[in-house]
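Quick sanity check, Integrase:
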Amino acid sequence: MTAPPVRPEVLDAARVMLAQIGISATDLLQAVGGTRRPAPTFAEYVPVVAAAVPPGSRRMYGTYWSKAVTKWGDRRLDEITPTDIEALARETQANALQRRNSRGGRSASEHQIAALRCLYKRAVADGIITEAANPAAKVAKPTRLSGTRSALTDGRIAELVEAASTTGNDPELDALIVRLHIETACRRGGALGLRPMDLDVEQCLIMLREKGGTFRWQPVSPTLMQYLQRHALERRAAGDGQLLRYANTRPVSRRRYDYLWQRLGKILPWVATQQVSAHWLRHTTLTWVERVFGYGVALAYAGHAETPNDAGTTARYVKATLEEVATALAALTGEPHPLALPGDAES
C-alpha cells in the first residue's frame, strides 16, 4: 500500500523545526544509516585546523590549542562538555604568566575559550558535529575589563622619539618605525606588511594590510614618504618584499618591536612601568584626531570605517573621505599633503 504524499506545508514546518535545533536532513540520514564517522581526537584535529586558519589566528590560538591537546589529546571532539571547557579556561587563567600589566589571567582565559570556539566552529563546518552539539558555543567568555592604554602627552611622545632615534644598534630603523606608527596610527601587522610597491609617491599614500584581511590607503607626510623610499632603496627591499629591514637587508620581524620597547623601557622608566607599546601610539594619534576632527574622521583614520559593529549603524552615516583623513594628517604633522582639503587643515 502506498503512503499518502506529505503536504508541502508539513515539509516546510519540519525543515523549520530541524533548523531551529541545528539538525539537517543529512544528519538524520546518517544517524539512521549509521554512516557518521567517529569524531576525531584533539590530537588529530588541531593540526588540521591550524593548517587551515590564517597566520594571525594561528599565532593567536596556537598556544591554547596546544593546551587542549595536552589536556585532551586522546579524547574525541564530541566527548568534551561545556564544563570541561570552563575548567580548562580556569586552569589556563590560574597558570597565566604574570607580567606587570597582568589582570589576573583574564585575557588568557578569554583566549582559551576563543581558541576552542574557533576549533569547534570548524568542526561544525566540516560536519563533524552539529551546531546544537557545539560545547564551546555554550561557554561565555569572561567580561572584558576596560583597557589600560591611553593617549600619551606631547612631552612623552617627544621623549620616545628622542630615545628611539639616538640609541640602540639601528636608530634609523627605530626612528622610522616610531614615526610610521605616529603618523598613520597603523597596527604592528600593517607596518610589517608594508612593501615598496605599496607606496603611492605622487599622492603620498601607503597601502596598509591589517587584521581581518583589510586593505586601506593611508596618507603619510611627504617627509615620511621620502624616508620610506630611501630606507627601501638603501636596504635593497624588493618591490614585492617587506619594506622595513635591518642594515644587513634582513626583513624586520615582531622581535624588533620587543627589542625596541624593552630598550625604551630601560631608558624611560615610565615606558616599562606602564608597559607602553606601539599600540599606545595608535591610541595617541586617534585620540587627537577625534578631538580635533571628530568621530567620523577618527574612524576612517583608524581603518574602522567599514567595521559593521563599530558604534552600531551610526558609523555608516559618518564615514569620512580620504581627503578628510589627509587633512587631519596635515594638521598633525604640520606638513602640506597633496590630498588635503584646501584651507581646512588645522594647526
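Posting the structure with no commentary besides this: Residues 42-138 form one domain.
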